[in-house]
Design a protein that fits this description.
Layout lengths: L1 E9 L2 E8 L2 E7 L15 E5 L5 E4 L1 E6 L15 H13 L4 H17 L2 E8 L2 H11 L2 E8 L5 H17 L7 E7 L7 H14 L2 E6 L3 H11 L3 H7 L7 E5 L5 H10 L2 E4 L1 H6 L8 H7 L2 E4 L12 H16 L7 H7 L2 H7 L14 E4 L12 H8 L5 E6 L2 E5 L2 E2 L4 H20 L1
Parallel strand pairs: 1-4, 6-7, 7-8, 8-9, 9-10, 10-11, 11-12, 12-13
Antiparallel strand pairs: 1-2, 2-3, 5-14, 14-15, 15-16, 16-17
Helix pairs in contact: 2-3, 2-15, 7-8, 11-12, 11-14, 12-14
Length: 433
């Protein structure tokens, strides 16, 4: 299958983009492009006419999320983090089924496709349900089964067995889905199990995805119990390395940032969730940048955001950094976009994260003709500061059109939404008794 995107705006110039199979095969001057230039042997070609006005950007990458938490959107809002987890989220999650996770993840992916997200790094329960939804909906993902033991040896043993079984079966995953190890946090997973997971990650070349330094309380408890700060604890336990992705990192100090940078690790900042849950701080992007620490962007789950709109998240990320630094030049628009494109691509093995020949065919077309994004002095600035998910016109992942002209092609939207609403209603009835 080949695709010709005719007359899109690419880096300020009208170009046509050719996709052959799963990669971008050419970016041509619009006047030279046309079906007649189709490579010999190509069986058929789909033409998408961008009309000289739709802007092409790389597909967006959501570096930290819990996709099936769409089922809890609006459930337990306006509560402090630990109260929210202990009184609302964890009791409900204990009653989740694999089917619940499947339908909740499909709802999340529908929202993501509509917003131009082509990759997610997911940590959640009932991993087979997540994998099934990802494979059906056509996006890319790292999928990790959340590991929480809370000091219980029997729970830890069951989860260790499950992780080993997933490692054995990972070759059965489709090409767009990769396995990750997903210890929840240093306060919910014992040090022995953290060290064990770190050793597994090195042995099997797996990514490790963990919440880290999200609150002051977490840092204080780590110092009290272990005598070191959270990143230093991970170093002690053998988890630091280029395979490590830490979510939040709000209270990392400069030494920890330098330690993570030297190891080649990545921090995923989730500003909307941090603001909503009132963690009491703002991740210091400028310090991370100075340390050479790679930073990506995530939405967190829909229960703590409450949407999965990465364009909105870019704006929030940029604004809070300017506010924190007291300097309007902190995290400019182009760098905010890079958090969800080139930086994420480097962190998650997604190619270059750029629109270029040979890159994976993960891209979006964005309509910036809306009154809210006009006049168009700078497309990147408009994308980051003025646009939102509704500006996304077409979403392509792995050479497949997932949404065209705002119509999702990989699912029945009404069925996806209806199934998720029904599952959420039934789940909360089980929780209430």
């Amino acid at each position: 299958m080949s695709i010709l995107i005719r007359d899109a705006v690419v880096d300020g110039a009208v170009r046509s983009i050719r996709i052959e199979g799963r990669v971008i095969s050419a970016i041509e001057e619009a006047a030279r492009a046309g079906p007649e230039r189709r490579p010999h042997g190509a069986s058929r070609e789909e033409v998408i006419d961008a009309g000289g006005g739709l802007h092409a950007f790389p597909g967006l990458a959501n570096g930290h999320t819990h996709a099936a938490m769409t089922l809890f959107r609006g459930y337990g809002d306006d509560l402090p983090l630990m109260e929210w987890l202990e009184t609302r989220i964890w009791p409900a999650e204990a009653r989740l089924t694999e089917e619940d996770v499947y339908v909740g993840t499909r709802l999340a992916l529908l929202e993501m496709i509509r917003g131009g997200t082509t990759y997610l790094n997911d940590m959640y329960w009932h991993r087979p349900g997540v994998v099934r939804a990802v494979e059906e909906m056509g996006v890319r993902a790292h999928v990790g089964s959340v590991f929480i033991d809370r000091g219980d040896a029997a729970t830890a043993a069951r989860q260790r067995d499950a992780v080993l079984a997933e490692i054995e079966a990972r070759a059965e995953l489709g090409e767009r889905v990769r396995m990750a190890l997903a210890p929840h946090a240093i306060y919910t997973v014992g040090v022995e199990n953290l060290a064990w997971l770190g050793a597994l990650a090195r042995e099997h070349e797996l990514m490790v995805h963990i919440h880290l330094s999200e609150t002051r309380q977490e840092v204080a408890a780590c110092l009290d119990e272990h005598g070191v700060r959270p990143a230093a604890l991970l170093d002690r336990l053998g988890l630091l390395g280029p395979h490590l992705v830490v979510a939040h990192g709000v209270f990392l100090d400069p030494d920890e940032m330098g330690m993570l940078a030297a190891a080649g690790a990545t921090v995923v900042t989730n500003p909307s969730a941090n603001l909503k849950l009132a963690v009491g701080g703002i991740f210091d992007y400028d310090a991370a940048r100075s340390a050479g620490l790679r930073v990506a962007l995530g939405t967190d789950g829909a229960a703590s955001n409450n949407n999965l709109d990465l364009l909105e998240e870019m704006k929030v990320a940029a604004l809070v950094q300017k506010h924190r630094a007291g300097r309007a030049t902190s995290l400019p628009a182009a760098e905010a976009l890079a958090l969800a494109t080139t930086n994420a691509a480097a962190a998650f093995g997604l190619g270059s994260g750029r629109l270029e020949v040979g890159a994976p065919a993960d891209l979006i077309l964005v309509d910036l003709s809306d009154p809210a994004t006009q006049p168009l002095h700078d497309p990147v600035s408009a994308l980051v500061y003025a646009a939102n998910a509704h500006a996304v016109h077409t979403t392509i992942c792995d050479g497949r059109v997932l949404m065209r002209a705002r119509q999702v092609l990989v699912a029945d939207e009404a069925e996806v939404v209806g199934s998720a609403v029904a599952a959420a209603t039934a789940l909360l009835e089980r929780v209430r008794g």
